Amino acid sequence: MTLNVLVFLGIIVIGWLVKSWIPKYLEKKAVNFATKEDFKEILELEKITTREIESIKGQISTGAWIDQRRWDLKRELYSKLLEVFHELSKTTANVATTYSPEQDKDFITRNKEFYDGQKRKQFELLDEAGRLTAVAALVVDEKAINVVDAFRQDAIVLDAENNPYRYMMGLRDRADCVYRLLLKEARQDLLGVNSAKSA
Q1: In 50-60, which positions are buried (b, 16+ CB within 10 angstroms) versus exposed (e)?
Q2: Is residue 16 situated within a structural domain?
Q3: Residue 86 sits in which domain range?
């Protein structure tokens, strides 16, 4: 009988284990297994997200580098164009005073070599402006390019008149005007400064 009681008690304990403890144990195991599976998925998603973030960072970095290089090129071209027109203005002002109508003919004749040298320098500066605008057309504001092109055309017209004083004065006035306009466009293009405020 003891054996029957022990078997009966064993069946009760096993029944209780099957009914109470094993389902909870299996449920806990299932949750842990699901958590491990979820964790694997989360890790995989994190790896994918990290790769995407690094890719985006690389694209942003490349874009920033390209923007910086473009800005550097613009700054360099604007600087060179401003130098050219400053030099043109200075050169023509010096020559214009030498060739003013108040000067006597002998003085003008004696200084013809000086005048011719300055005129050659001006043509070199005009050629330089042309070369710069050919490259600048890629990145510099179109208004600035148009101003330089108009100046070069005006210089050709003034030179065709064959009046040294009028040529020099006209060139000086136009060079000053182009310098101011280029400066305004450079401020707007490089710094985002409103043209109306900087004028």
Answers
A1: eeeeeeeeeee
A2: no
A3: 65-198
Q: Round to whole Å and give the CA distance between 196 and 54.
A: 42
Q: What gap in Å lies between CA 51 and CA 130, rounded to an integer?
A: 47
Nearest to 74 by CA among 144, 159, 150: 144
CB atoms within 10 A of CB 95: 26
In a domain, 41, yes or no: no
104: tokens are 């006597």
Q: What is the amino acid identity at position 11?
A: I
The total of structural domains in the chain comes to 1
Considering the chain, what is the average pLDDT of its residues? Answer: 78
Q: Which residue has the tokens 């466009």?
A: 185
Instruction: Find the range with the poorest average confidence among 6-15, 84-93, 143-152, 167-176.
Output: 6-15
DSSP secondary structure letters along 34-103? HHHHHHHHHHHHHHHHHHHHHHHHHHHHHHHHHHHHHHHHHHHHHHHHHHHHHHHHHHHHHHHHHT-TTS
User: CA–CA separation, 142 vs 126, rounded Å?
Assistant: 18
Classify residue 58: in a domain, yes or no: no
Tell me the mean pLDDT in the region 39-46: 77
In a domain, 115, yes or no: yes
What H or E segment, with its residue span, contains residue 186?
helix 164-186
Q: Which residues of 127-155 are buried (b: 16+ CB within 10 A; e: fewer)?
A: ebbeebbeebeebbbeebbebbeebbebb
